[in-house]
Design goal:
It contains eight helices and two strands, in the order ββαααααααα. By secondary structure, it is mostly helical. Helix 5 packs across helix 8. The longest helix has 33 residues. It is elongated.
Length: 224
């Protein structure tokens, strides 16, 4: 994830509170990272609907006005959080998305990709759920999450299915685009429901059942 540190009316990172005295000087990039880390920590504990600027900034040791030196609002914060997580999802799935393995090897690569992608939801589930929730309220987040990340993933999966159908590895009656859309959207909702609730994390046994169910659906659909 890239961080942009620019000059603002706060100068070079000196945040001051009249009630608490001068705060520690921080470089702009440090302050920005602190805000993003605080936002992620907040969302790991509480849902997006409860997230406020005050609730984030109290965790940083910075003044509330410092937030607006780096972010327009809380929706921009979750969009920035998505940048790194979304890239991670593609990196984990890339071997299957870009490959052309057939038979048992293709199935194994797919299962490995699903497990790796699912682990991202285990680690970032509440944050990803917050991003999905925010997309329903803000066009900017929706553009990056649904029209950006999700649609890109659907397109990449559709391309792989199309190649597998042409190679005779997948059933010839599959519609690559619609099959990809159904699988990706189902997987997103299923994993968010399983791992996206801050108040409850599944046990190891429950997580294993989630992974096994996803693997069964994808493998049976694509490879019989």
């Amino acid at each position: 994830m890239s961080f942009i540190g620019g000059e603002s009316w706060l100068g070079s990172g000196d945040e001051v509170s009249g009630d608490r005295g001068p705060r520690r000087r921080r470089r702009p990039e440090e302050a920005e990272r602190a805000i993003l880390a605080a936002a992620r920590a907040f969302l790991e504990e509480r849902p997006f609907r409860e997230m406020t600027v005050e609730g984030v900034m109290v965790r940083t040791g910075l003044s509330r006005p410092a937030f607006y030196a780096y972010f327009r609002d809380r929706y921009e914060v979750v969009t920035r959080l998505l940048e790194g997580i979304g890239g991670l999802l593609f990196a984990l799935d890339w071997r299957w998305l870009s490959g052309g393995e057939g038979g048992d090897e293709g199935r194994e690569v797919l299962v490995d990709a699903l497990r790796a992608g699912s682990q991202t939801f285990v680690e970032y589930g509440p944050v990803l759920r917050a991003i999905a929730d925010a997309a329903g309220y803000d066009a900017r987040v929706e553009q990056v999450y649904r029209h950006g990340l999700i649609e890109r993933l659907v397109g990449a999966v559709a391309s792989r299915i199309s190649r597998d159908v042409e190679a005779g590895l997948s059933p010839s009656d599959l519609d690559p685009q619609e099959t990809a859309r159904a699988l990706v959207l189902m997987t997103e909702r299923y994993l968010l429901d399983a791992f996206g609730r801050p108040e409850r994390q599944p046990s190891r046994r429950e997580s294993a059942a989630v992974f096994a169910t996803l693997e069964e659906i994808w493998v049976r659909t694509l490879y019989g």
